[in-house]
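Here is the promised in-class demo. Please do not try to memorize the tokens; focus on the logic of going from shape to residues.
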């Protein structure tokens, strides 16, 4: 069936009855050239095109209401509804594509440690029996030894506390120390489970603190310095030897 420009404009302006409008819509679905003619006459086409132009390719699928189950509407309102739906999809897609990546355990631990100040650890109970109880709980939770004796003997590091935390259901232990200036730094261990990949040492600054992370034998390890400029080379060697001895 052939439609004149006047008929197509009447459709776009909502001046056709529902039967004639549906005939045009059915024809458009089967005739790409007719669709192009209709789009060329449609004042909303540039708006829809500009909305779709910046929509990311890899976005969640969103199902819009079936036209057959919707109430009949005049054509201008029908076109506005389509344009509004497209805008909603575009905004949702943009928010999905630009959402921040979830934080990993190392980033969360660094955020937590960044709240520490010397006063946080100055009055902790470091009596041998208190530390023994803390380490017993931590080791039972992790399922491995932390070698408290070796950690207590590290140079320039006063052992302050072992605390059991959790990240996404995985046990995470934070061992807190004070350096020669009384500033807090930490050694963290998380049980990642059998099959977790080993990872080489990675140095980074997280939440303003120097960090070193690595993984082996189903556990993740992390040293968190007292500030962003801390040289963790010596501590990395010392902690690696302490937990493997």
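The designed amino acids, position by position:
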């Amino acid at each position: 069936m052939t439609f004149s420009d006047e008929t197509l404009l009447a459709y776009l302006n909502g001046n056709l009855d529902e039967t004639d409008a549906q005939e045009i819509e059915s024809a458009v679905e089967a005739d790409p050239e007719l669709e192009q003619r209709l789009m060329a006459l449609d004042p909303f086409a540039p708006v829809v095109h500009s909305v779709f132009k910046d929509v990311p390719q890899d976005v969640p699928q969103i199902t819009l209401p079936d036209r057959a189950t919707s109430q009949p509407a005049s054509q201008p309102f029908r076109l506005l509804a389509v344009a509004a739906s497209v805008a909603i999809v575009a905004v949702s897609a943009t928010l999905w594509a630009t959402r921040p990546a979830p934080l990993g355990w190392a980033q969360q631990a660094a955020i937590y440690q960044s709240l520490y100040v010397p006063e946080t650890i100055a009055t902790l109970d470091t009596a041998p029996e208190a530390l023994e109880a803390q380490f017993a709980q931590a080791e039972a939770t992790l399922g491995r030894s932390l070698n408290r004796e070796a950690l207590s003997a590290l140079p320039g590091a006063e052992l302050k506390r072992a605390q059991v935390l959790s990240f996404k259901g995985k046990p995470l232990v934070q061992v807190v120390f004070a350096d020669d200036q009384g500033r807090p730094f930490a050694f963290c261990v998380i049980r990642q489970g059998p099959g977790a990949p080993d990872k080489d040492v990675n140095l980074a600054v997280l939440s303003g603190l120097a960090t070193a992370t690595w993984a082996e034998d189903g556990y993740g390890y992390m040293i968190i310095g007292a500030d962003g400029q801390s040289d963790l080379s010596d501590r990395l060697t010392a902690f690696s030897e302490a937990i493997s001895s």
